[in-house]
Amino acid sequence: MFFRNLTLFRFPETAVEALDDLETRLESQRLRACGPLELATRGFVSPFGRQSDALMHQIGAYTLLTIGGEDRLLPGSVVTEELANRISELAEKEGRRIGARERKRLKEQVVSELLPRAFIRPSRQSAYLDAKNGWLVVDTASRKVAEEAVSQVREAVGQFPATPMAPEESPRALMTDWLIHGKLPAGLALGDECELRDPVEAGAIVRCRRQELESDEVREHLKTGKQVYQLGLTFDERMSFVLGEDLTVRKLRFLDVVLDELGEESSESIQAEIDARFALLTLELARLFDKFGEWFGLPRPGDRD
To answer: What sections of the protein cross the membrane (predicted)?
Structure first.
């Protein structure tokens, strides 16, 4: 149940009150089946899977949520082909040109007839709330998907001012400096992956994987003015990840020293295993996010007030 990617949002301490009675609030937004004429539905499902009705899992200040979705798969090419056939048949039958308004009506008719027969694709998106430190963490590297998750939480709890991070220090400038001088903050080490870009519009892009980042080859790119947009890092020899210039975390992986703490014995149940993994996940990431705050300056909204 470990997250693989992290898109981070922050919310002020004043927003914590909105999380009171969260389980009841989530119930009103439980995922329902996609209707025959609906393209999609969104709602909350149990983090423990279909065998559980619980819509959240809480350990201290941390609350695990799962946003479910159902999308009807109706490719535009299918609609276009069927619409073209009907327009052709009608034009041939009545011997006239089909106007724009009638085309629109025919298209709506095609969609309404095909939708109930379309396959449904289910989806699941994990996220968690840290009420103590004001983090909303979504398991995705897609800003669009993350924003949809925030909207779903906001719809459940009412006003919930979770916003993207606003670092006081430029992550791009800092990571470029780290790579140029090889002087990283304590506990942080270079990985074997990076993305360098010329900051001018339509500038060159260099992606390195399984590459020694302190090599002359990488330094030559930096000398020409390229900057770091993504950088592979290892933190405290406990986790590795690729950090983006927007502070999105990709390819998060806990190293063996962390996984060993879960123990080798199999858990008695899915709930027990998720509980153990979620506790470990939030503990490790809390340490990382504290460091993010030190390195990049990430005050919790309201801290300056």
So the answer is: none
